[in-house]
């Protein structure tokens, strides 16, 4: 029932978003219909709800990717004032953050966070990047997205002046007694981040870094 309610809320969010859009969202006809990003229904109501959530998430990410590419082209061409470009970026950030709230408590929340992390880094909003990453670390510690950004987190943490917070977060992940996907990558990032740690000099296999 929780999943069904979440799906209904997400669907309402999208309908409302397209009806009330004032330039924030692309025209609906420019995006694939939901039927194209949702697999056929099964006999399981829970599975159907999961697939609906995944479809809504995929549609959001496709829309954001299209808007980011368009905004990047405009920036390179220099056809718009910096204030206009900044407004466009703020809208994309806002819509992704709205998506985080709509998908809260689901796997899709982390995939939306992945896109937001990429955008925040591109725009050099390092402090917000660290906030978002650490939130994912403590709320979804074993999600693959958390491990995927572990090495990058150390670098961004340095740029934001918050390296110790990031290291504390990675240490928290490393101390989880269970094995999970990406844990080796997290530990490799942690070893390299700790200054003066003799283990940081150990060569880490490339297959671990790419895990």
What does this protein structure show overall?
There is one protein chain. This protein has 211 residues and is mainly alpha-helical. It folds into two domains: 1-123, no CATH class; 124-211, no CATH class. 71% of the residues lie in helices and 0% in strands. The protein is built from eleven helices and no strands. The protein has helices at residues 2-20, 34-37, 45-77, 82-102, 107-122, 126-139, 144-148, 150-160, 163-174, 183-193, 206-209. The model is unreliable at 1-8, 10-30 and 198-211 (pLDDT under 50).
Give a brief description.
With 211 residues, the protein is mainly alpha-helical.
Secondary-structure blueprint of this entry?
Elements: H1 2-20, H2 34-37, H3 45-77, H4 82-102, H5 107-122, H6 126-139, H7 144-148, H8 150-160, H9 163-174, H10 183-193, H11 206-209
Helix pairs in contact: 1-3, 3-4, 3-5, 4-5, 5-6, 6-8, 6-9, 8-9, 9-10
| % residues in beta strands | under 5%
Uncertain regions: pLDDT < 50 for 5+ in a row? 1-8, 10-30, 198-211
Largest sheet: none
- Strands, count: 0
Mean pLDDT level: 78
Helix content class = over 70%
Descriptive key words:
2 domains, 71% helix, single chain, 211 residues, mainly alpha
């Amino acid at each position: 029932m929780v999943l069904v309610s979440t799906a209904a809320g997400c669907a309402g969010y999208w309908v409302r978003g397209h009806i009330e859009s004032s330039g924030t969202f692309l025209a609906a006809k420019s995006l694939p219909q939901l039927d194209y990003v949702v697999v056929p229904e099964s006999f399981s109501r829970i599975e159907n709800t999961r697939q609906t959530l995944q479809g809504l998430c995929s549609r959001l990410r496709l829309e954001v990717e299209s808007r980011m590419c368009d905004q990047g082209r405009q920036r390179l061409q220099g056809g718009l004032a910096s204030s206009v470009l900044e407004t466009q970026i703020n809208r994309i950030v806002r819509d992704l953050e709205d998506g985080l709230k709509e998908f809260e408590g689901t796997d899709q929340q982390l995939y939306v966070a992945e896109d937001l992390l990429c955008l925040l880094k591109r725009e050099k909003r390092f402090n917000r990047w660290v906030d978002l990453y650490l939130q994912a670390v403590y709320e979804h510690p074993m999600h693959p997205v958390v491990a995927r950004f572990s090495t990058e987190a150390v670098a961004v943490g340095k740029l934001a002046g918050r390296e110790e917070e990031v290291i504390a977060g990675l240490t928290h992940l490393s101390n989880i007694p269970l094995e999970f996907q990406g844990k080796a990558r997290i530990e490799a990032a942690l070893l390299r981040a700790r200054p003066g740690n003799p283990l940081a000099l150990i060569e880490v296999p490339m297959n671990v870094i790419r895990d």
